[in-house]
Amino acid sequence: MHQDDRYVRWFETLNNTDVPLVGGKNASLGEMVHTLKDRGIPVPHGFATTAAAYWEFLKANNLSGKIEALLQDWGQGAKSLEETGKAIRRLFLRAQYPQEIAAAISIAYHELGRRYNVNDVDVAVRSSATAEDLPDASFAGQQESFLNVTGDHELMEACRRCYASLFTDRAIIYRQEKGFDHLKVALSIGVQKMVRSDKAGSGVMFTIDTETGFRDVAVINAAWGLGENVVQGTVNPDEYMVFKPLLANPGFMPIIEKNLGAKEKKLVYAVGGTKTTRNLDTARDERNSFVLSNAEILTLSRWAVAIEQHYGKAMDIEWAKDGDTGRLFIVQARPETVQSRREAGYLKTYEMEQEGKRLLTGLAIGEAIAAGRVCRIKSAADIARFKDNAILVTEMTDPDWVPIMKRARGIVTDHGGRTCHAAIVSRELGIPAIVGTGKATEVLKNGQEITISGAEGDQGYVYEGLLKFRETEVNLSNLPETRTRIMMNIASPAAAFRWWRLPVKGIGLARMEFIINSIIKIHPLALLHFDQVTDPGTRREILTLTQGYEDKVEYFVDHLARGIAKIAASQYPEPVIVRMSDFKTNEYANLIGGQQFEFQENNPMLGFRGASRYYSERYRDGFALECRAMKRVREEMGLANVIVMIPFCRTLKEADRVLQEMEANGLKRGDAGLLVYVMAEIPSNVILAEKFAQRFDGFSIGSNDLTQLVLGVDRDSSILSELFDERDEAVTRMIRSLITSAHQAGRKVGICGQAPSDYPDFAEFLVSCGIDSISLNPDSVIKVIRHVAEAEARQ
Predict the structure, then answer these.
(1) What are phi and psi of 470, to 5 degrees?
(2) Are 542 and 526 in contact (CB under 8 A)?
(3) Largest CB tally within 10 Å, which of 500, 600, 723, 793?
(4) 122-149 pLDDT, tens per residue?
(5) Distance (Å, rounded) from C-alpha 162 to C-alpha 170?
């Protein structure tokens, strides 16, 4: 029999102009099938029913008038939304297919089986509204999808249920709010060969950072089994982040973040019974293993870049891995609709002003803060109990929850990753959420006052009580240009992406010890000499943190390298100055396992810190790991914009020994463009500036330590606080002298202390000295840019 093109179209005959014919989802699949296969991007074969088939189905069953009457009753208050939606869906489920449409679907289904040489081929059946994914409205996720559908009867039932899902309660409300005529939106059905990801893994990826809008990364979520668990937030997936600009170089592996998810469940094919899929608990080795290899992460990321380039916009993509063949496939792609529409000229920031007891930790969705009372709801059947402006606390959400999510001040869930339903909707609505907390519904009680914060990096926190916080909107437009390079101090990898919109030219100070303290948490020598760690509790902590790493040393190098790389990526190709570790002995001792490898000092501030550790037998093996991480960032990942900086380097002899130690670990100054700077924070750095300039490529003034040592004032002393002033003449003479000597030697000088942020006159003084760069805390950047521009104009 001949397939009727009026009612069914193969993906390869469709493109993006066919949204009125087959909806956004199916048009996009067609676009990919016939335009991206030449770039090696595989998309499973399939076909779509047309809008004409939908209208013919309505006409043959006299549904339009009945639907219109039910909607009028609802509009007039005669029936509830729930009653209306249920009645309309019942009309579809009782309706019969016109013979021509049923035949067209059946012929196409059997042809699909012939293409794969399979009788009763297993397919995914997905809905695609003909108005889907317009720039100002996204219908994605509102209609139903069915997986592992086999045989003519199952297929026709799945298609009928797809038609009915055009009138789910959430879809009716959405169209009403967006001003769409319910009877002018048709539904197309996509029928696509299943990828056997139930035997492997699947997930989603975005070509933009979904939290910050940073455009130079691809973010991939992955879990075992079929992809619905990731989309619906049933599991906490793996998360990988790849720096896109370096993907074109096959010699680089720019995976700048890898987070192991719990992946508690996996969705697989069901055998027997009425259900086509079922959820199983994952095995321990699956939970402790990454779903994708590094090579697969890079392959998917390259495909994401190609898809983004083809569409010319940020994309939201679903992928799957076939467990039978080991092949990766793209199964859907649609435009990203949240971050890509954000207003570029403004930056809204939030900051906690009050400390509180931390109750829960999860993933931060939306860089905002909200405070309110808990409204805990465990089931969609109880959503009518939700109270406006409460903080919604639940296990997870699906599209049925959208009407109450819009009325929430914030959202907290037990399960889900950055691409789960709760995360996607909260971003669209501009509501902060903390997802994947594990036990919010157990810990939090109805009516309890809490504050949720997503403004402190990748991790989000739930605090006890209604805490004070500050909201600031910064206008980034009409800022003056400055001759002086304005850079930024960054504390953590997460913060680097948070502030990428600020008009700075690089990072003047990234502290390695922050990554070690907040992400790695373990003393490097405790990893190098784990067999010598004696405390049983410490051993357990280390074993827990290093799960998935056979080599415990690799845990340190891998996490440190990716942390540095994420910071470097945020400003690439502008310079990013990373200071090697500058813990004091007491701070190192506080790391897990640190007590055993450190000693007590009376004055750690002036003791065994900075450069003196790097060549000492007490720590040189730890410094070697820092060098390995730095080398990996620059040479394996390709982020050669990283500049190494050595802190607290007291003497010329010490400088020589540190550079020699670096070279022994593969970091030779000058090789592959490697620049090495020194912190100028000790009077000897200033007095011998011309000789330090022979050994280093630049200076960065640490004004806090320099002031402390020039004036002989403990910067932490409350009694002497009035004496501690970077603007004291003794300090400013030192700074002017250093800048003059460094420039005479052809070296650049920057400053990374707090003073330019606090004192406009100090910033003006630095400009008068001809300083090359000023590195600031992010919240001071806009203010100081204006001060510097005014100072330059007066010169």
Answers:
(1) -115, 135
(2) yes
(3) 500
(4) 999 999 888 644 444 444 556 788 999 9
(5) 14
CA 310, CA 32: separation in Å to the nearest integer?
Answer: 9
Q: Which residues, including other chains, have CB under 8 Å from residue 150's CB and lie 6 or more apart?
A: 120, 121, 122, 123, 276
pLDDT, mean over the chain: 91
CB atoms within 10 A of CB 115: 13
623-665 pLDDT tens trace: 999 999 999 999 999 999 999 999 999 999 999 999 999 999 9
Do the beta carbons of residue 151 and residue 94 sit within 8 Å? no
Residue 635 DSSP class = I
Distances (CA, A) of 398 to 315, 423, 425: 21, 11, 9
Residue for token pair 């007095």: 687
Task: Name 342's Cβ contacts closer than 8 Å, sequence gap at least 6.
Answer: 213
Strands 748-751 and 773-776: parallel
Cβ atoms of 238 and 223 closer than 8 Å: yes
DSSP secondary structure, 603-652, as one string: -GGGSS-THHHHTSTTTHHHHHHHHHHHHIIIIIS--TTEEEEE-S--SH
Contacts of residue 760, defined as CB under 8 A and 6 or more positions apart, other chains included, come to: 784, 787
Is the distance from CB of 221 to CB of 204 less than 8 angstroms?
A: yes
Q: Which amino acid is at 708?
A: Q
Tell me the average pLDDT across 99-117. 96
Which residues partner with 258 through β-bridges?
A: 240
For 712-729, the pLDDT digits (tens) are 988 777 788 788 888 999
What whole-number distance in Å separates Cα of residue 707 and Cα of residue 755? 11
| Residues identified as active-site | 421, 752
The predicted-structure confidence for 569-615, as pLDDT tens digits, reads as follows: 999 999 999 999 999 999 999 999 999 999 999 888 899 999 999 99
Half-sphere exposure of 502 (CA within 13 A, CB side): 31
Tell me, rounded to whole angstroms, the distance of Cα 559 from its chain centroid.
Answer: 16
Taken as a whole, the chain contains a residue count of 795
Query: How buried is residue 606: exposed, middle or buried, by Cβ count under 10 Å (0-12/13-18/19+)?
Result: middle
The helix or strand, by DSSP H or E, that contains position 699, with its residue range, turns out to be strand 698-701
Distance in angstroms (rounded) separating the CA atoms of residues 92 and 159: 10
Question: Do the beta carbons of residue 269 and residue 277 sit within 8 Å?
Answer: yes
Strands 255-259 and 238-243, sheet pairing: antiparallel
The helix/strand/coil state of 135 is coil
Give the helix/strand (H/E) hosting 124: strand 123-129
Quote the DSSP letter at residue 633.
I
Sheet containing 46-49: give its strands across: 8-10, 46-49, 187-193, 123-129, 145-149
Q: How many CB atoms lie within 10 A of CB 279?
A: 17
Token pair listed for 599: 């000693």
Alpha-carbon distances, residue 202 vs 156, 303, 318 (angstroms)? 26, 15, 8
For residues 502-515, average pLDDT: 94
Whether the CA torsion 248, 252, 258, 264 is positive or negative: it is: positive
Asked if 435 contacts 417 with a C-beta cutoff of 8 angstroms, the reply is yes
β pairing state of 459-464 and 449-453: antiparallel
The pTM of the full predicted model, rounded to 2 decimals, is 0.86
Contact 650, 705 (CB under 8 A): no
Of 191, 129, 130, the C-alpha closest to 159 is 191
The count of other CB atoms within 10 Å of the CB of residue 178 is: 13
Packing angle, helices 620-631 and 552-571, rounded to 10: 50
Helix (H, G, I), strand (E, B) or coil at 491: coil
Whole-number Cα distances in Å, 159 to 106, 153, 318: 12, 10, 21
Alpha-carbon distance of 386 to 792, in angstroms, equals: 57
Contact (Cβ atoms closer than 8 angstroms) between residue 202 and residue 230: yes
User: Is the C-alpha dihedral spanning 630, 634, 637, 640 positive or negative?
Assistant: positive
| Three-state DSSP class for residue 266 | strand
Residue 107, H or E segment: helix 99-116
Contact by Cβ (8 Å): 362, 454: no
Euclidean distance between CA atoms 319 and 332, whole angstroms: 7
